[in-house]
Amino acid sequence: MDEAFTYLSFVAPPVRQILTTYSPNNHVLYSLLAKACVTALGASEITLRLPALLGAVLCLAAIRAVSRSLFGNGWMMLLAISLAALNPIVFDYFSQARGYGLALAFYLFGLLYSARSRRLGVEGALLGLSVGANLTFAIPVIALDVLLIALCLARKAEWRAMAWMLTIEVMVAAGINAGPLPSGVS
């Protein structure tokens, strides 16, 4: 039912509907990508789900990258990938015409790059895209931001890089979600 509602309420109507209507079912970045696929390739079950399938591939790549970073190349990495990717709560959402797989992929890549590098602009963009793909990811993104700020305080690290990451993150997330949010939420 959610997929049908997404199609009828956001993908079939003009793009303006995606950009101006708040609904918990309107995962803005996903809706825009689905609209582009359906417009370019025609309406079908596959074209509606193409962004979800892309998100699933990206998410599997992110799970592999995080698992490899934590556990190396051995059997522990394979176990971690299996436990994360085959978890029904994750796996079931990979093929649904929703923004969950895309949001999780962007979040995991943002998490991975924030742990590995100092290019915080990239991490900010990835985390902002995560929130743009699914607004519910604002909670884990904010939690990660708080953790990164605490680490920055503890290490007396460079604040400019952290401020840059947060600025990019907010600009991307707000740029995608600002229109549809009701006036009481924005």
Question: What are the salient characteristics of this protein?
Answer:
186 residues; mainly alpha; 10 helices; flat
What does this entry look like structurally?
Helix content is 75%, strand content 0%. The mean pLDDT is 86. The chain has one domain (2-177). The protein has ten helices and no strands.
What percent of the residues sit in helical stretches (DSSP H or I)?
Answer: over 70%
Give the number of DSSP strands. Answer: 0
Kindly name the structural category.
Answer: mainly alpha
Strand content: under 5%
What Rg is obtained from the alpha carbons, in whole angstroms? 17 Å
Strand count, sense and barrel status of the largest sheet are:
none
Average predicted confidence as pLDDT: 86
Q: Total number of helical segments?
A: 10
Point out poorly predicted stretches: none
Instruction: Compute the separation of the termini in Å.
Output: 28 Å
Secondary-structure element sequence?
A: HHHHHHHHHH
Please indicate the count of domains: 1
Shape label = flat
Topology at a glance:
Layout (H helix, E strand, L loop, with lengths): L1 H10 L3 H6 L7 H14 L3 H27 L3 H11 L2 H4 L8 H17 L3 H14 L4 H18 L3 H19 L9
Helix pairs in contact: 1-3, 3-4, 4-5, 4-7, 7-8, 8-10
